[in-house]
Write a structure and sequence with these properties.
globular
């Protein structure tokens, strides 16, 4: 589907994994690679099945990914579901207004060009900033207490 000389592309669970493929040049960018990446990103932006992109020149392990800030946390397989549920619980304790507009910006923005996506994000942020929950969140932060969101 995506054939290029200087990059390899694999779609895994709606994620495009893009690997640089210029080992003799230590995966350094070239004019050809830049053109291919530009073409690829344009095509991926129009592909509704792709929800994210990972761009890499080499494989790294989980500990290295955490060390360089690529992932927030590394957990064992045994702890994965507990940690995922705890993370989800923390996210859901936030204002549903903020979550709604963040999800909307992500879902809508994924199918738009960059400038249009940024406009959606700005509009969504404006809606959150105009909410009562934003005021409660700021007040709770200033008063060093847990917020009591009204989801308005």
């Amino acid at each position: 589907m995506y054939e290029y000389n200087t990059v390899n592309v694999e779609i895994l669970n709606s994620i495009a994994v893009v690997k640089f493929n210029r080992p003799k040049a230590l995966n350094a960018l070239s004019t050809e690679m830049t053109k291919e990446l530009s073409d690829l990103f344009d095509k991926l932006a129009l592909d509704g099945s792709v929800r994210g992109i990972i761009l890499t020149g080499k494989r790294i392990n989980a500990d290295e990914a955490e060390k360089i800030g690529l992932v927030n946390k590394v957990v064992s397989y045994e702890d994965l579901m507990d940690e995922a549920m705890n993370s989800l619980g923390r996210a859901l304790s936030n204002s549903s207004v903020a979550l709604k507009y963040a999800k909307e910006a992500i879902d809508t923005g994924m199918s738009l060009d960059l400038n249009s996506g940024i406009k959606v994000e700005i509009n969504s942020a404006g809606m959150v900033f105009a909410s009562e929950d934003k005021n409660e969140g700021v007040a709770a932060f200033m008063e060093k207490r847990k917020p009591n969101f009204k989801n308005k």
